Amino acid sequence: FASSLLRIFFGLSAGSEGPSLFIGAASGEGVATLLKRNEMIRRYQVTGGACAGLAVAFNAPLTGMAFAFEEAHKRFTPEVFICAFSSVVFALVVRNGLYALFGLQASSFFETYLFPQGAVSDGKFFLFLVLSAVICGVLGVLFYKWTFLLARLFSKIKGKSSFKRIFFRMLTAVLLGGAFSLLSAYLMGGGHGLIESLGTNGGENASFQSAFALPLVGGLLLVGVLKFIITGVNMGAGVPCGAFIPMLAVGACIGSLLNQAWLGLGMSAGYCDFLVMVCMATFFTAIVKAPITGIVMVCELTWSFSALLPVVIGVAIGYFIGDLSRTDSIYEELLEKFEREQGIRARAQREVFTLSLHDGCIAEKREVRDVLWPAGVRVVEIRRGEELILPDGDSVLLSGDVLTLVCRTDEPDKVKAELLEIAR
Question: What is the pLDDT of residues 235-271, one digit of tens each?
Fold first, then answer.
């Protein structure tokens, strides 16, 4: 919380959703500790707190739930659904109650976007849409590469202590962010104001204020390029910040720039807001590799599902380009980088566990994929009486089954204790 306040004070290009998600997850961890819950329940409560924090930050309950399925657990199970649904609902009830208490009004983030009602039938617009999605997908992959190039450069900063190394990383991001912010106020903060200013309400004119009296295209190019650079610097340096909104802001700048080009080639001005939405979702998906979250988030942040089909098309293209470039989710890669820096992967050893399922245990009559195993655990063999089964995700577990499980971990005792909780 304190680091987030400092980040806001320094005007860094960072959103509130990352810290909100982290604070929510920490709250879930705290509740699990106070109630002395087992490891598996603790993980569900961390998930609930995280998706509640994201939903409150965005005022977007469906986005919070989609995050739980697609990013946190990468699966859909009844437990994950109930955990995410109940956490998001209660969090938003509390949020709206606080808003009412302080006389505030909860509203959509981006109210300057207006979409034509009914299905989009203009074939020329779909041509522009596909071209825009390809451009955004390629730029998304470029952002991904840029972030990890910076991460490698920052990792070369030497110091006698980890504190000094981290300090110089943060100092670089703060000084560079401050210098950029002198050029345009749009470069400060997450980018809500920037995205809002690019909405045209279905017309030709956005409320975007260009810097240094530059023409609209020059101002958009300046803000978009600098936002692209400084957001990558923050992520590469490890600044505690949210990157969802900054990435959407960069995508919105790309969409507005492309609007200027496509309007000159005959695109109807009524589709400008559609195209910005498509570019936001496509750029985000190419980087994060979370297509469902991208689709739901962009539509929910505008409180309109009129743009659903164009956004789905754009997200599919962005995801495909990300796959062609062999990139993983940027958050997965950042996690792996963190584990390498902390020596977690170096300490991890291959462990084999044998587990017998008791009658009435959590895993009984469930498919293998529906059990919340400890991180990295794989079921490699099921012995059922005299029968030996080589399982896949669809294999149903029964009481009396003897499982052989394999994982790499630096905490074998913790993994064993969690497996016993699943089996008893």
Answer: 888 887 778 889 999 999 999 999 999 988 988 888 8
- 102-111, long-range: CB < 8 A, 24+ apart: 106/59, 107/59, 108/59, 108/301, 108/302, 108/303, 109/58, 109/59, 109/192, 109/195, 109/196, 109/301, 110/192, 110/195, 110/196, 110/199, 110/301, 110/302, 111/196, 111/199
Angle at CA of residue 303, ends 234 and 243, nearest 5°? 5
Q: Please enumerate in sequence order all residues whose Cβ is within 8 A of that of 192, keeping only pairs 6 or more positions apart, or say none.
A: 109, 110, 245
Confidence of residue 357 (pLDDT cuts 50, 70, 90): very high
What is the DSSP code string of 122-137? -HHHHHHHHHHHHHHH
**DSSP state letters, 93-153:** HHHHHHHHHTT-----S--S----SS----HHHHHHHHHHHHHHHHHHHHHHHHHHHHHHH
- Give the whole-angstrom CA distance, residue 424 versus residue 419: 9
d(CA 258, CA 252): 10
**61 Cβ contact list (under 8 Å, min separation 6):** 55, 88, 89, 92, 300
Compute φ and ψ for 353, nearest 5 degrees: -120, 145
Q: Specify burial of residue 408 (Cβ count, 10 A radius: 0-12, 13-18, 19+).
A: middle
Residue type, 92: L
* Residue 38 CB partners (closer than 8 Å, separation 6+): 418, 421
Strand partners, 408: 350
CB 21 within 8 A of CB 54: yes
| CA–CA distance, 415 with 40 (Å, rounded to integer) | 10
Q: Judge contact between 77 and 370, C-beta under 8 A.
A: yes
For 156-190, letters b (16+ CB in 10 Å) and e give eeeeeeeeebeeebbebbbebbeebbeebebbbbb
**Could you read off the pLDDT of 85-103 as tens digits, one per residue?**
999 999 999 998 998 899 8
Radius of gyration of the chain (CA): 23
